[in-house]
Amino acid sequence: MQGQLAEIDIRSILQLIELGQRTGELYVEAYTPLPTVFGTETTATLTQSPHSWLVFFLNGQIVYAGTTDGSLSRLRSYLHRYDLNNSLQDLDVPAIATFNSPEYGYLWALLENHTLTPEQGRQILNGMVQETLFDLLSLHQGTFVFKLSAGLSPQLTTFAISSLVATITTQIQAWKQFYPHIQSPHQCPTVIQKLQAHDSTDEKTTRMLRWMDGNTSIQQIARYLNKGVVTVAKGIYPYVRQSIIHLPDIPVALPQHESSEDWHATQVPRIVCVDDGVTIRQAIEQILDEHGYEATSIGNPLRALSLLFQLQPDLILCDIAMPELEGYQLCAMLRQSTVFRQTPIIMLTGKDGFIDRVKARMAGATDYLTKPFGAHELLTLVEKYVGLGNPTRPKPNRLLEQAIQDDLELAPHSPPPNR
Predict the structure, then answer these.
(1) pLDDT digits over 165-182, tens only?
(2) Tell me: the pLDDT tens digits for 302-327?
(3) d(CA 415, CA 109)
């Protein structure tokens, strides 16, 4: 499964992984503003840097999440709260660090030599996962790839996706109240005016202020204090508004240039059929191809989710009863993306019941077609939604006449047509 975040959001990807109880790795890359220190200067600026993350899953739950830069700075920040800043210096490089994330490997080494307790390890891991998801769920552009693989081993604990996403979504909503004065947890605050004595009564705020040297991000300060980034931002927000604390601005994100083919350059309607039945797929492709449409069929619904964003069809035919992911669920997830908000989605089902029609409508389906159906029934629906006003193919009436003459029934027991 792979695609663009402008087409499907991280939340939907995580829901798919949880729903399918998948074990594997999610790789995400985006151009994200990050604090960078140049040379020996003491001030930090923000630049557009390609940034990437890895999230590891076991049976639909998160094991670990972090960046791919191999840095141990985040782990050191978490160790600061336990006065273990220098604990990594004399630590032997663990074997796990050569195969997985070095950060995760070193965390396990600290657990194995009893520098950290299991409870401390779980707290650090929980913080790492939450701050990574905060970054990922805040993204609007980027690319992602999910691949099945053996689970990250060993596992200290796992985190349920649904509850985590709900928690982080609430945090992101709370974060928005600080905008535009505070834009990102990666911003590095600098105290540019001394506080008056009566302004320094809050001991927690005073502790935060001592790290505001322009080189320490809001996120790092949150790790030091064992607090959430929203809590830290709330503490410094009044001082930012009074220009007592300065934060560098976040530049506008670099545009993402698509190198893929513009699928909408052609006027021939593109139709994709998602159905796990080989016979049905082949028959539908044959009918649509012969009558001037560009037809593609996909048997695996999970793979279809990624391919649909690449193909960007004008109409989608989707079976309801499929293994791994039901047509209702696939339809609902597609409707969450602006790319497919208006795309006609026709559900294919062997059931002709009222409940199935209601479920299809609730999932966002445009219409439904009951199996077995004839070629003329299929083409009638296709003409209804994408056939009119298309000058590059035969007239609708002629198509229907040909379909009626063909009279090809798409029943489950029908043999595959010769291609």
Answers:
(1) 999 999 888 888 888 888
(2) 888 778 887 889 999 999 888 878 88
(3) 59
pLDDT < 50 stretches in the chain: 34-49, 98, 197-198, 200-201, 252-266, 388-419
Edge-to-edge strand list for the sheet holding 294-298: 294-298, 270-274, 315-319, 345-349, 367-370
| Amino acid identity for residue 250 in this structure | I
Q: What does the alpha-carbon distance between residue 331 and residue 15 come to, in Å, rounded to a whole number?
A: 14
Measuring CA to CA, which residue among 178, 244, 174, 173 is closest to residue 205?
A: 244
Contact 396, 383 (CB under 8 A): yes
Cα–Cα distance measured from residue 208 to residue 92, given in angstroms and rounded to the nearest whole number? 33
- 137 contacts 12 by C-beta, under 8 angstroms: no
- Report the chain's terminal Cα–Cα distance, integer Å: 29
Residue length, the chain? 419
| Whole-number Å distance between alpha carbons of 169 and 173 | 6
**What are the extents of the domains in the chain?**
2-178, 264-406
Task: Report the CATH superfamily, name and number, of domain 264-406.
Answer: Response regulator (3.40.50.2300)
Q: How far apart are CA 23 and CA 34, in angstroms?
A: 30
Taking CB atoms within 8 Å and a gap of at least 24, the contacts of 155-158 are: 155/58, 155/63, 156/107, 156/108, 156/111, 156/118, 156/121, 156/122, 156/125, 157/63, 157/122, 157/125, 157/126, 158/58, 158/59, 158/61, 158/62, 158/63
